Amino acid sequence: MADQDSSAVLEPEPISAVLFDFHNTLVHGGDATTWLATGWTAAGRPDTPPDGLGAEPAAAAAAFLDRVWEHAHEIDPDSSRDESPQQHRRVFLATVVRCPGIDADLAEALYTVMPMRWEAYAETVPVLTALRERGVRTAIVSNIGFDLRPIIERSNIVVDAVVLSYEVHSVKPAAGIFQHALDLLGASAQETLMVGDSWRDDSGAAALGIRTLLLPRTDGPHHGLAGVLRLVSG
C-alpha cells in the first residue's frame, strides 16, 4: 500500500502580504477628453479643444492621450522614464508631441495636470481596508518617475509601504523592486501576492516565486479588486 503521506497535496502558504501596482490597478487615469480640456485651459488656450483643433482632431488627440503610456513604450521600450523625474517628463513630452494638434506648450500643460486626473477605483479603499483588518500587509510597487504620495493621500489610500522605481533605482520587471517591497514588509515571496495590470512589468514578480494576479486595464470606476480578498481568504 502506498504511503498516504506521499500522495498528500501540499497547500501553498496563506497570503499575508499583497503588493499592488498603482496606475490602472488602484487608480485609473480618468476621462482623456476631460484631461485634454483641462490641459487646454491650463495652457491658456481660448474656447475648447474641438473649437481650436476641430472635432475630429480633438477626438483623435484624446484617444492618443488615453493610451499615452502604450505610445511611450514605442520610444522608450526599456522604461527609462521611470528612473527619474527628468526622464519621466522628457519621455512624456517627446511622446505626446507626436500626436497632431499637441504642441510643446500644450504637452507641458497636459503633463502638469495629469496627476490631477487620477482617481481611485471604487473598490480600492474598501479592499485595502478589508486587508488591513485581516492583518495582511500591503505595499504599492510602481514604475513611476515622480512622487505618488500626494495622490495616495488624496485618494484615502492607506498601505504599509510605498516603493517607487525612481527612488529605489529598480524598474519592473526587474527583481530588485519587488524584493525591496518584500524586505519593507518583512514578507517572503511564498506568502505574498502581486496585483497589477501589465503582463510585461508586473509578471516579473513571478520570477521571485510571488503569486501574481493580472487584472488588465478596465474603463470606468470598477476594476475587480474584490477578487484579491477571495485569494487571500482561500
TrEMBL record:
Which terms are listed as keywords in the entry? Hydrolase
MF-aspect GO terms: hydrolase activity
SUPFAM superfamilies on file: HAD-like
Q: Which InterPro entries match?
A: HAD-like_sf, HAD-SF_hydro_IA, HAD_sf
Q: What is this protein called?
A: HAD family hydrolase
